[in-house]
Amino acid sequence: MSFKEYKNLNLVQISNEILEYWKAHNTFEKSISTRKDSKDFVFFEGPPSANGMPGIHHVMARAIKDIFCRYKTLKGFKVERKAGWDTHGLPVELGVEKDLQISKEDIGSKISIEEYNDACKKAVMKYTDIWNELTERIGYWVDMDNPYITYKSKYIETVWWLIKKLYDDGLIYKGYSIQPYSPKAGTGLSSHELNQPGTYQDVTDTSVTAQFECVKETLPEKLKKYSQIYILAWTTTP
């Protein structure tokens, strides 16, 4: 049996039609409401940071996560998918300080802690509209209306409760490791923060080589035949 070649495939049109159908029929919401008595499959999205624009790697990661949630839905589970926003991190603070033209030392004097926190909360949610648009455009099902936000007290208290629970169960131990540290920010740095633009710079430093003359009487016999012996010491931080 032969099949006629289909030459009018318009992927953009098909995508738009499916998205409109899902929206008109509340398909995502119904995938949950029609399974009220089904077994739960819990999904909390590892939250993106809304202070930066989404990239292709976010689309790829979400496509993979969506596969598992849709599979579990097809298997009859009730899959409530919780969105979230990552609002913590040194890049947020440094960005706000740059915009306000202040340093860490100015917080509490030139600007109050409350004003600084409010500026950070505003900056960290800068691109939420673009993220929401992308989420809908790529057909990623997740509850964007009730996200968890990491700067909210409820979230922070929950994390501390979990840490306490882990401690009580003997699952936390004290150890030591070498970490990069920022004297200016007064905090340790993650590998992601160390790869931020502008972290590394080419600088010109003074290189000094000092010459020390050896005392001839202290030299071994095989070196005493030379009239003068010197030791060179090199440093970049004289």
Give the CATH topology of the domain at 11-171. Rossmann fold
Main sheet: strand order? 1-2-3
* Number of beta-strand segments: 7
Distance between the termini: 85 Å
- The stretches of 5 or more residues where confidence is low (pLDDT under 50) are none
Q: Helix tally?
A: 8
Round the Cα radius of gyration to an integer and report it: 30 Å
Category from helices, strands and their pairing? alpha/beta
Task: Provide the CATH top-level class of the domain at 11-171.
Answer: Alpha Beta
User: Quick one: biggest sheet?
Assistant: 3 strands, parallel
Succession of helices and strands: HHEHEHHHEHEEHEE
Task: Supply the CATH architecture of the domain at 11-171.
Answer: 3-Layer(aba) Sandwich
How large a portion of the residues is in β-strands, by DSSP E?
5-15%
Shape: elongated
| Average pLDDT figure | 91
CATH homologous superfamily label of the domain at 11-171: HUPs
Helix content: 25-40%
3D architecture notes:
- The chain is an alpha/beta fold and 238 residues long.
- It has a domain at 11-171: Rossmann fold.
- It is 39% helix and 13% strand.
- Strand 4 (181-182) and strand 5 (187-188) form a beta hairpin.
- The longest helix is centred in the first third of the chain and has 19 residues, at 56-74.
- The radius of gyration is 30 Å and the shape is elongated.
- The model has no long low-confidence stretch (mean pLDDT 91).
